[in-house]
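Archive maintenance. Older records in this collection stored only the sequence; we are now back-filling the structure field for every entry so that each record is complete. The fields below show one back-filled record exactly as it appears after the update. Entries are processed alphabetically, and PQQ-binding-like beta-propeller repeat protein is next in the queue.

ARCHIVE ENTRY
Title: PQQ-binding-like beta-propeller repeat protein
Organism field: Halobaculum lipolyticum
Length field: 419
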Amino acid sequence: MRIRIAVVAAAVTVAVVAGAVAVTTDFGLGGPPALDVRWTSDTATSVGANHHAAVAGAVGGGEGLVFAPVSGAGGSDECRLVALDAATGERRWHDPIPPANCTLHSVADPALGDFDGDGEREVLAGSTTEELVAYDPTTGTVEARFPLDAYGYTRPAVADLAGDGTPEALVVDSGGTVFAFHAGADGPAWRRSLDGNAYAPPGAADFTGDGTDEFAVGLGTGRVVLFDAGGDVVWERVAFGGSVSWTATADVAGDDAAEFVIATTDGTVAALDGRTGEPVWTRALDEYAAVRAVADGDDDGHPEVYVTARDQRLRALDGATGDTDWTVELAAGDAQMTPPPAVGDVDGDGRLDVVAVTNGGTVVVVDAAEGHVTGTYERDTAVFAHPTVADTDGDGDDEVFVVYGDGVVVSVDGGGAEP
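Back-filled structure field:
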């Protein structure tokens, strides 16, 4: 562990500007405590640009596992999806990607979901083999393979769009083709081709307030499309000039229907009304804005949207208006990119925390209500993937898992209660 120390007089400066709290943090003398490492995985590869995030959870009756997509050098045998013990980091199983398909995008962000309706969640991941694969989470046994038109870059989703008790595995490949698959079927339930690449995670939720879920997709052209259970377009918008690169799904307007919150490469963050696709609010931030986490961090009954950008600032935005509640400077200056944060109770105090990572390798835990930094950890390796926060041991507190650019997964203790 290497903690950056600067000789400064104060660790935290707080300023109130136009009703928003801006918190600028210097990780210096008297600053927040260092977070402890729970474990470090043995999944290192020869490249430093791994940028797909893990998923974690309790599966198979309560077993805690972390599923990490690991990419390596082109043409090598380093690419694989790896299942790790969430308590120790020990490898449980892995599924290799053939060397001919091994690239930096070899395995997309995996998802956990019960796509076959048997009461147990499966692990689903797209890959450069141009297929969506469903695995038994405890053994790694392949339960289904669904062909795609191009490699799967984004995290898939599992939802029962029709509300008929038959869930769909939903995925968008890198070429912008949308698929809905049913377990046991020979082909897709429906397939729709869109004009544009897809790099942002899609969203499945009740966007229209009709009691059933729809499927939202954002594209590199700035286009956003909402599909119903049969694959028909509910609405579509050319939202903004930049590429839609990150998304979140939540009812931020308090109208009993979800909004699709998007972030674009030109720095736009917007909440799109789920019924119409029109913006509820729009913010212009720095380039490469990133959003994934929405939660009621201050327990006031209204959600906040937690956003980062290239300027390495973490912002809490009011979910209803988009106004800034507080800002934390995670690191000085601009970075290549800053992954979006995650939210959970990682220190066991019953309050939500925001977990953010910097491109430079620092993990920062922030009190979600006030924007105070409560702990940091730094590894001298780049991070391009968002952190994963999940309760993998069923104790009510969340654990933190970070995939570094070299393919190593690190689990840190969020502080407070014992891991």
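Update note: Residues 202 and 217 are 5 Å apart (CA to CA). Residues 1-29 have pLDDT under 50 and may be disordered.
Entry marked complete.
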